[in-house]
Amino acid sequence: FKGQRLLTGKHRIHPYPAMMHPKLASFLLARYAKQGAKVLDPFCGSGTVLLTAQEMSLDSTGFDINPLALIIADAKTTNYDSSKLQDDIESFKEYVGGTSEVSVPVIKNIDFWYGESVISELGRMRHVLQNQSFHYPHFLTVVFANVCRTSSYTRNSEFKRYRETIDKRVRAPGSVIDTMFARLDETQSLFNNNVNSPGSVKIQLRNSENEFNTSNHFDIVVTSPPYGDHGTTVAYGQYSSFGNEWTELLNPFNTISYTVDSEGLGKNQPLTIDVEHFPHLRSTLREIEKLRPDRARDITLFFNGYLKVISNVSQSLADAGYVCFVVGNRQVASTEIPLDQITAEIFEYLGLDIVNIHCREITNKVMPLKNSPQNIRGKKSKTMTDEYVVVAQKV
Description:
Elements: H1 22-32, E1 38-41, H2 48-55, E2 59-64, H3 67-77, H4 82-97, H5 110-113, H6 116-131, H7 137-150, H8 175-192, E3 201-205, E4 218-223, H9 236-247, H10 279-291, H11 293-316, E5 317-327, E6 331-332, E7 335-336, H12 339-349, E8 352-361, E9 370-371, E10 381-382, E11 386-394
Helix pairs in contact: 1-2, 3-7, 4-8, 6-7, 7-8, 7-9, 10-11
């Protein structure tokens, strides 16, 4: 998919870290999903797989622990009446223009991350969203969440919270509300140009390490799980914090107070994994233990949770069903973790047959090609340039 844009159509309503390429999701579903298949994504994020399945007339279910991701996924996969959406946008603009009341949430160090006028303008819009009724409040809330992030002092090129330099913090009065209005119009045009799709979508706030408790069996699982703990890979919680803080009372998926980064894989489960069953994991941990025993334990905890998720996935998979995990092989202590091979070993351990391991070059990278994970001056390691799709089947 080199040269093809990552964010097109409905996917552009709100960016999200480490998104699966929609073309990859489409390829996997077209290749491995039968007609009428039920699709599961246990790490659905902002809904790339769900929207792709919907556009292919497939019913899908998505789990995630990030409320912001789920409301983005919901907004993407809602079938809209264009006239009602237009009414919502026009009404929102009128309400904002006609009020001076503000509703500002309690946010730690809010003045560090936002200018005074920006806080006021965001507060006006939040007040309207809280106190007026709309046909599609999720649509408005998601666009608002994106504006909350881009109008902050954080560097928008980063997943983690880093404050902009002083010269980039000056914003013209009214610019945040103007930006919101323009984003609404732009996003509406994107959605109006997309035909509504028949596939049904179910979205749940759920930690996939916990048993799924569903009687449904899925014909195919397509997902991109975390490649490691959120503290040292993609900080989904930090990225989402601005949107989550401003929309907490507006987001129906905020029913459980998950702390996204600290709820990452393996953080809250008893350690039960026996690494002797997985030769690639065992040898990798031994190499890392020589240099960083503390990181070796973090990695063990991660794979403890990873095994639990795949076990849940396997139990929910219908006979002859397929599971497709899109993974990347990161480095820790200058040692590559072969997540593709470890994933294949776990699949086989749980009784699944390996069908294929596809390899794809990553062309839409936010991270640099090299970094300094050990914070030693001049000592750099390569970041991931390829991703792997491990495909297995339940027989």
